[in-house]
Structure formats: structure tokens, C-alpha cells
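Minutes, project check-in
Item: structure for the 123-residue chain
Input as provided by the requester:
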Amino acid sequence: MILAFVALAQASIHIPGIGISERKTILDALRPSAEQVWHSPVVFLVKEIRVADGYAYVSVVPERPNGAPIRMMLAGGTGNAYGSGLLRFAGGRWTVLAFRTGASDAWECGYQGIPRSILPSYC
């Protein structure tokens, strides 16, 4: 019974690939939050993107439009910037529920009402 439920929950997950309009729309919705944090235009290298039931989880590494890395202070020094976000599709558009940078400290694991299947495996 439990296995059937897990299989059903996973069946609704999809990963919009490169060139898919849904992927572009999700990243475009996330971009203003990232640009506010890093104070300049960004493009994303996508580490993870999972979508299910009107929600999306995205993990990204931002870069400058010319391909230059964005650096940030990390524990133990500096490193390439990274971030993750949760988005919801409602009213015909994606909106950002939350966006965090740096060490995730599993912030996304505490969100209620979203499909658990889109979250990272550590949740």
C-alpha cells in the first residue's frame, strides 16, 4: 500500500528540460529575486528543477550574462554563489514563495502544503 502511494506521488513529478518553455518561465519568475540578492543581471546554471502539482523546486548557480561566476562569502571563505527557490503556479503564472542563498540549512524542508516529492532528498 505504501509503495503504491510513493509510486503515484513520484509519477506526477516532471523535470522540464532545456528548451522547454515551462523551464524558462520558472527561471524567469525566479530571476528578479536572484537579481535583488546579487545586485545585477544573472543567468542560471540549473542544478535541480522539479515540478509537481503546481509547485516547483529549483536549485541554481547564478552567473553574470557574460558567463563570469558570481562569488559570495561562504563558511570557510568565498565560493561560487548558489541559491534555491520554491515557486507556485497560480493565476496563470509562476510566483516565488521563497528564495534563499548560501547554505540551505534545509529551509525548504519545513514548507507545508507542497508536494514533498519535489524537495531535495535530505528532506
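Outcome recorded: Residues 1-11 have pLDDT under 50 and may be disordered.
No further action items on this chain.
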